[in-house]
Design brief:
Blueprint lengths: L1 H5 L3 E5 L2 E5 L1 H7 L1 E2 L6 H14 L8 E4 L7 E4 L1 H9 L4 E12 L2 E4 L10 E11 L6 E6 H4 L4 H5 L1 H17 L1 H4 L10 H13 L3 H11 L4 H8 L13 H9 L8
Parallel strand pairs: 3-4
Antiparallel strand pairs: 1-2, 4-5, 6-7, 6-8, 8-9
Helix pairs in contact: 4-7, 10-11
Length: about 260
């Protein structure tokens, strides 16, 4: 039964061409990295390609898996541009870098910057024919740079591309809202990591497990988990007792 599901072919159209895809094809030929994707990740990728009309054989979408980490489902920048340009409301995009030049913030055009410029981010404007104002996006280099070789070699090109993708997604949320590139901040990936972190046993839970199981460190762990003793409460001194205590001290003579 499982083999039948993995071999079941899904057919959909992309740019006038018919694309046929099976889960086995995704696992064997379309997955990058050294990990094996799960059936759930396989189906998520297949359905993304199907419903967003992406051709994985042309690298419009691809899936990456390293070890036991969650798979990354990536959409290429070219797929974003094709999807935006297919909309009758698309009216062009302009983008550039944000640099610190002579202690002033300068918005450049394109990815060209001077050797003395301090690159701090990028901007992008996406115009729609049915909107009076373009969708303007500004992003910071420190927030998006992953410190990888590509980012180190051409940071201006990478941060400008990321700004364009974010502006396109804001301008066309109905068709690009659930798609993310490799350089994007993917909230789904962040949520997955947060869920994994929450499910990891805490240090206290591990100690409790050792105590219950009677491990070698049970006694030490039990001592660490003991609550601190409550502080001693000092009763207030009543007025009569205060006078008696005060009378026991003689005032020093003044010279």
């Amino acid at each position: 039964m499982a083999n039948e599901v993995m071999d079941k072919e899904v057919s959909f159209e992309v740019n006038g061409e018919n694309v046929r895809l099976t889960p086995n094809m995704i696992q064997q030929f379309l997955t990058s990295g050294n990990g094996k994707i799960t059936p759930q990740e396989t189906m998520m990728f297949l359905n993304l390609c199907k419903y967003q009309h992406l051709n994985p054989f042309l690298k419009e979408a691809y899936i990456i898996k390293f070890g036991d980490k969650p798979a990354q489902i990536i959409t290429s920048k070219e797929a974003f541009m094709k999807r935006a340009e297919s909309s009758p409301n698309y009216d062009g995009v302009s983008a550039g870098c944000i640099v610190l030049r002579n202690n002033e913030i300068v918005y450049t055009k394109g990815a060209f910057i001077l050797p003395t410029d301090n690159l701090v981010g990028a901007w992008a404007d996406v115009k729609r024919k049915d909107r009076s104002q373009p969708h303007h996006v500004e992003i910071g280099l420190k927030e998006f740079s992953k410190g990888q070789s590509t980012w180190n070699a051409m940071p201006a090109t990478m941060i400008r591309k990321t700004a364009i993708v974010n502006a396109l997604r804001e301008a066309f949320p109905e068709s690009l809202g659930a798609m993310y590139t490799e350089d994007d901040k993917n909230p789904n990936e962040t949520a997955t990591k947060a869920i994994q972190k929450q499910t990891e046993p805490s240090k206290t839970q591990n100690k409790l497990a050792d105590i219950i199981g009677g491990g070698n460190d049970a006694t030490n762990n039990a001592r660490e988990l003991e609550t601190e003793p409550e502080p001693e409460i000092i009763e207030p001194i009543e007025q009569d007792n205060a006078e008696e205590i005060e009378g026991t001290f003689e005032q020093p003579e003044l010279l």
